[in-house]
Amino acid sequence: MQKLGLARDIDLALHLPLRYEDETRITPIAELADGDTAQVQGEIRDCRVEHSRTRRHLVARVRDATGELVLRWLNFYPSQQKQLAAGRLVRVRGEVRGGFLGLEIVHPALKVVEPGAPLPRSLTPVYPSTATLPQAYLRKAVDSALARASLEEILPPAALPPGLPSLREALLWLHHPTPETSFATLEDRSHPAWQRLKYEELLAQQLSQARAQAERALLQAPPLRATGPNHLRGRLAAVLPFTLTAAQQRVVAEIERDLALDKPMHRLLQGDVGSGKTVVAALAAATAISAGWQCALMAPTEILAEQHFRKLVGWLEPLGVRIAWLTGSRKGKGRREMLALVASGEAALVVGTHAVIQDDVHFARLGLAVVDEQHRFGVEQRLALRAKLGAHAEDGANLGATSSAGPPPAAPRGLEPHLLMMTATPIPRTLAMTYYADLDVSSLDELPPGRTPIVTKLFADDKRDQVIARIRAEVAHGDAGGDAGAVGSGSASGSASTPGRQVYWVCPLVDESEHVDLQNATATHAELSAALPGTMVGLLHGRMPAAEKAAVMSLFTGGQMRVLVATTVIEVGVDVPAASLMVIEHAERFGLAQLHQLRGRVGRGAAASVCVLLFSGPLSPTAKDRLRAMAETNDGFEIARRDLEIRGPGEFMGARQSGDALLRFADLATDNALLDRAREVAAWLPREHPALAAQHVARWLGSRQDYLKA
Ligand code: ADP
Ligand code: MG
Fold it and tell me: Are residues 259 and 352 in the same domain?
């Protein structure tokens, strides 16, 4: 419950059903049709485990007086198999699909019942939950919290849209709609009860955004300006191996303008995969260092952090910048040495994973923090970063006394570092305005020149052998060049004979358990190794020790390894320009943003790149939409727009960042009028009724108030 943010009675009272289930009726099996959602009661006939090429299914058959139905679990526990002993009477519910063996329900909700067990008399609320929190428990908790929670009106009538029910009325109805209420009414989100909830939620969010903004205006930061004739910032710009795009120049200017101010920058840099965000970060870091301050750069995975580290060492060490490297896997003496470099200020730049913000890391003079792929960090980590940055303002002043390297020029007390966040998942404007009102946004809307668009192809999984045959033909050609130049010299016509192709083969996360994930990738690795004799085929997954990961990555980056089978560990940021073919297995299981990110690993050099999406049916309608979107466009902003359309804003923001989906009820696509009203009221309510405004925010956001800052 804590994970879901359900700490107080009011949290539970405001935890509204996702939907309702009709468990009041049993449908005879003979009356089921493909696509129905229904409840069936019958006896288990048999239950067994079926093996396919890479995985195991649990399959049971259930029979009532009218017919037979197949139940299927794609992943399961041994205890489930035991529960399904032949002869047991079960009640199952789910979506009926025409399967290979006739009608089936995949992952049904299942209850073992006694003969004659009564059916519920009213609709059953289904609450958002987690895998380990049973609905029945949550329902009881919500009901008793509803009885206890104080639901009196806080908002004065002038702050409410007209014609809506009281909060109490709205809540009671939504949790327990009267039995005669139709599903259509319940699904209608423009119902006054929903309107009331959505408005309250939007108002709470607008109020706390306004407060966060006001708080930030009071903070102080060191103005960072590259001055002097021969400063680092200018020298870095001079040695870059390419000219900045116009978009990069504009964004760099926006950032440098912020850095020069004496209040902390909070800027989100969004740019499609491959748009060149890293160099923008490097220039910002150089500005901070030129001004005599330290910069920290954080990446969500060790692989990505290592890649940044190499790139930045290549650019900045020749210019005399000392760079420290901190990750979770680096322990003992090496870590202590790095910590000393950071604390003394000798390391001007610190690159790493979230290890950079651990308690024992003390910066001498942190002026700028850069967070790459910020959407991949959990809310907690982003909060920890904010706390660290805030604490740093306290830290700095004490350091002179504790450092053995002699007193460094300590940071004046009370100065916060500037913050630059980067993401390749663009956030549509309305969302940015509501979720990130406390952030300024810069966009890289242009790709570096010379890129050939990626061609995306969809293949059913039964074409797998053809895809492997094509890989065999392609890797057989020429030597892989380790750099984009070697590949770029090949024909750009997209012909199959482009020399030097390197290939990513991505395996999905089958479920939450990394173990299954691993089996899948390992099996594919074995399959490809056997199918491609004489070719080096590597394997990369999250469970490997960091050193091994780094070794595999460097073989692939160097070009000796031609094929890399990987889990989604390569999803973000990995930059190997010579890789020009990507195969994504079970593409139907990935989200759209994730597919786009993965695809962004190719198309980084001048060679024509291809992305093959292998899927196995039957495809759900949303899976179809996602695959179609991938085949139709390469544009990240367009992908984000479609993703938003397919998933809705709550999911869009929340999928990766559970707990972060601050708008649970309001839908920015349809509730703009309510949002406008909330904005209007948020402008005067804190002034005229400060206590009520604070009370309203506390009721709605409680312990989550801080999330708005993350
Ligand atoms: P992302 O925005 O996805 O983080 P990267 O920063 O990894 O993109 O850049 C992608 C590739 O493009 C890198 O190999 C980088 O060196 C290269 N690159 C960046 N900016 C330019 C530019 N202006 N001209 C040419 N290549 C560039
Ligand atoms: Mg990147």
Answer: yes
